[in-house]
């Protein structure tokens, strides 16, 4: 399925939904078209039977940051500050918030550059898998800008405050191996094994109990913003919901029968 000219969506029978950013001539920069396409794709996925979402870029780039052409138009047109703020709200804020809070597990497949807003797009997913050609950079300073697209929220949670400060204040580009050391990605796979290793991890996630997976995904995402007391209460509430599912019964039964469970999301 094509959502406009910038984003493609494929929902497979095995429960995997793949969102492909498809403006390779612009290195999949987070344009208004791509931002709207991602939101539309997530809306479609939430109404489907998908259990996991994969986000990738076409043409050897994940996403090369903000829309530079729009920046040039803004400079030449002397865009008022309030209009610039509304532009960011339309192009990035809704997209990032929707992806960060999306109930299904999300996996970013990073091949090539993921910089600026594009780096945040990867971090907005729950898991990041990279090729050896991946590169990350929070390069807002290079174009005379402060951080946006969720940098101040996402980056310190992933790498810690002091490393986040260094990355944004220097604007350094880090390669795949260093990104893995910093925690920007979960795994770096070589080209010859990338597809197989990704497929294995995605299959593991898709085979899990969907109701429980949604709850654990939400709880872990929200955990840093809670006290331990609130976290324990919320976990107990979620567990109470999951206890009543057919999948819980299937999991316990499969355990005692020494077989793999077959979860159906009920």
How would you describe what is shown here?
The structure is a single chain. Mean pLDDT is 89; it is low at 71-76. Strand 1 (2-3) and strand 2 (7-11) form a beta hairpin. The protein has two domains: 2-205, 2-enoyl-CoA Hydratase, Chain A, domain 1 (Alpha-Beta Complex), CATH 3.90.226.10; 209-256, Lyase 2-enoyl-coa Hydratase, Chain  A, domain 2 (Orthogonal Bundle). With 266 residues, the protein is α/β, with parallel strands linked by helices. It is built from eleven helices and eleven strands. The longest helix is centred in the middle third of the chain and has 20 residues, at 81-100. The protein has a seven-stranded mixed β-sheet, sandwiched between helices. Strands 5-7-9-10 form a four-stranded mixed β-sheet. Helix 1 (32-46) runs parallel beside helix 3, helix 5 crosses helix 6 and helix 9 (210-222) runs antiparallel to helix 10. It is globular. It starts with a strand and ends in a 10-residue tail after the last helix. It holds the Pfam family ECH_1. InterPro entries: ClpP/crotonase-like_dom_sf, Enoyl-CoA_hyd/isom_CS, Enoyl-CoA_hydra/iso, Enoyl-CoA_hydra_C.
Largest sheet: 7 strands, mixed
Please report the first level of CATH classification, the CATH class of the largest domain.
Alpha Beta
Report the CATH superfamily of the largest domain.
Answer: 2-enoyl-CoA Hydratase, Chain A, domain 1
Give the DSSP E fraction (strand runs of 2 or more residues): 15-25%
**Lateral arrangement of strands in the main beta sheet:** 1-2-3-4-6-8-11
For the secondary structure, the number of strands is 11
Please tell me the CATH architecture of the largest domain by its name.
Alpha-Beta Complex
Structural class: alpha/beta
CATH-assigned fold name of the largest domain: 2-enoyl-CoA Hydratase, Chain A, domain 1
User: Measured on Cα atoms, how large is the radius of gyration?
Assistant: 19 Å
Which word captures the global form? globular
Unreliable parts: 71-76
Count of discrete alpha- or pi-helical segments spanning 4 or more residues: 11
The domain count comes to 2
Summarize model confidence as the mean pLDDT: 89
The rounded distance between the terminal residues' Cα atoms is 27 Å
H/E element order: EEEHEEHHEEHEEHHEHEHHHH
Helix content: 40-55%
Protein name: Enoyl-CoA hydratase-related protein
Family: Belongs to the enoyl-CoA hydratase/isomerase family.
Organism: Halosolutus amylolyticus
């Amino acid at each position: 399925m094509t959502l406009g000219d910038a984003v493609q969506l494929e929902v497979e029978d095995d429960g995997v939904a793949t969102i492909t950013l498809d403006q390779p001539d612009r290195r999949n920069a987070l344009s208004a078209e791509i931002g709207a396409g991602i939101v539309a794709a997530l809306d479609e996925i939430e109404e489907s039977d998908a259990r996991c979402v994969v986000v990738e870029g076409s043409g050897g780039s994940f996403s090369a940051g903000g829309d530079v052409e729009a920046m040039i138009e803004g400079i030449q047109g002397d865009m008022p500050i309030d209009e610039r703020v509304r532009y960011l709200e339309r192009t990035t804020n809704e997209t990032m918030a929707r992806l960060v809070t999306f109930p299904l597990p999300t996996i970013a497949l990073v091949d090539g550059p993921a910089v600026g807003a594009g780096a945040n797009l990867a971090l907005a997913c729950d898991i990041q898998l990279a090729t050896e050609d991946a590169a990350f950079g929070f390069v807002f300073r290079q174009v005379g800008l402060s951080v946006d697209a969720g940098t101040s929220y996402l980056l310190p949670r992933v790498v810690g405050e002091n490393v986040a400060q260094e990355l944004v204040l220097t604007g350094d580009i880090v390669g795949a191996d260093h990104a893995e050391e910093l925690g920007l990605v979960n795994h770096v796979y070589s080209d010859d094994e990338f597809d197989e290793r990704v497929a294995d991890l995605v299959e593991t996630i898709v085979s899990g109990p969907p109701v429980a997976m949604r709850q654990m995904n939400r709880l872990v995402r929200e955990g840093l913003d809670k006290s331990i007391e609130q976290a324990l209460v919320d976990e107990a509430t979620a567990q109470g919901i999951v206890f009543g599912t057919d999948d819980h019964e299937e999991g316990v039964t499969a355990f005692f029968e020494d077989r793999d469970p077959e979860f159906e999301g009920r």
